[in-house]
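JOB MANIFEST
job_type = single_chain_structure
chain_count = 1
residues = 450
[input]
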Amino acid sequence: MATAGTIAPNRSTELLQQMIRLGCVNTGHADSGFETRAADLVRPLVELPGVEVEQFGPTPERQSLIARLPGTDPTAPTLLLLGHTDVVPVDPADWRHDPFGGELIDGWVWGRGAIDMLCVTASMAVAFADLARRDHALPGSVVFAAVADEEAGGELGADWLLRNHRDAVMADYVLTECGGTPLHTPSGMKLPVLVAEKGAAWCTLTVHGTAGHGSTPIIGDNALVKAAEVVRRLATYRPLGVIHDTWRAYVAAMGFEAELEAILLDPAAIADWAAHHHDRGFAADCHACTHLTLSPNVLRADGKTNTIPGRVELEVDIRTLPGQTQGHVREILLDLLGDLASSVEIEFMADAWEATASPVASPLWHAVERASARVYPDARCVPAITPGGTDARFYRREGATSYGYGLFSRELTFDDYVAMFHAANERVDVHSMALMETLWSDIAVDLLGG
């Protein structure tokens, strides 16, 4: 297998570089992102004879691009290639190269979004254009969507599109981000296909106390001190693992050694194993995929240096497993708060969602397997769950079979792949870009009867 440095840049690589340089940073505020720039960039590539192209969005600056290549058979299924165009913020000081430079260095493209998920979006756009140039149309339709706002929950992107322009963006089958990073195991190479994802029960805990002057601390009831104790209690949460159906199927398909398989299927043993395993990315993923997790990430206190705060807000990222509801989460929080519960309000954020899953036994699964085998004939596709959220969940709730996938080269390790999400020094190799450029076309032709 050639190394990344010996693979020539391709059309997907060049488009990826351009998309990184746009810097469509989504801070979570409505006036960020400006993804219309990405829609305008991609539009000339996919606006080809026979293709129906539209742009939709809640504001002129937050537009998503939808390109449809109609099939010849109205009864045939539709495949949606779903990419997002926004990226998360960066701290340039943490990066070895300009996070918005899109530099190609020794066969790797560097920049924010290189992994999450502009590499997939760019390769999907190029593959869609190739499908549109085919001599013979496919029986089924192909839709390519480059959508806004995924990084802030999708309310202004995929969710908004399904609520306001459902006919334009709905499909029977959906492919979007994550998955496809080669995992090397004693039983051979495995390619994770994300068929499920955890839910999010994000919440704000408002801690109440009594304000006072900072020079006389015993006169008040410091809400910040209480909040510190709340954070400590959340950090001590150590639930048993949950061995749900998707996880059980993943472990069975991976063909781990018997000792490791036993640990990964043991609700009591998996957490301790994950805490001490040397492969941090793999271990963290195994832990997150089998546990409800609580991560207190934002703290806000009113006042100033000489004022004891009477009110503090704590935002907690809570990720749930299949079958776990907000009611279940509330009971856990109340139990952890204990004697502090009367001083703390629990409010779940409006954009929370429950865990979702798609069936493995589907025509899309088999098309993914066959397309992957052309590159890695000895590898096995395995169903997996992701601890993060993607736009696939909006389509699963509408009944579409939706997977997260890609196809990456051996140069990109699973640990590096996991570690680069929302982190510094994101990069992807041009070999992976070439693989995905072909992958999407192969799946579409196979699935839609080409």
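[summary]
The first strand starts at residue 52 and ends at 56.
DSSP finds 15 helices and 20 strands in the chain.
exit_status = 0
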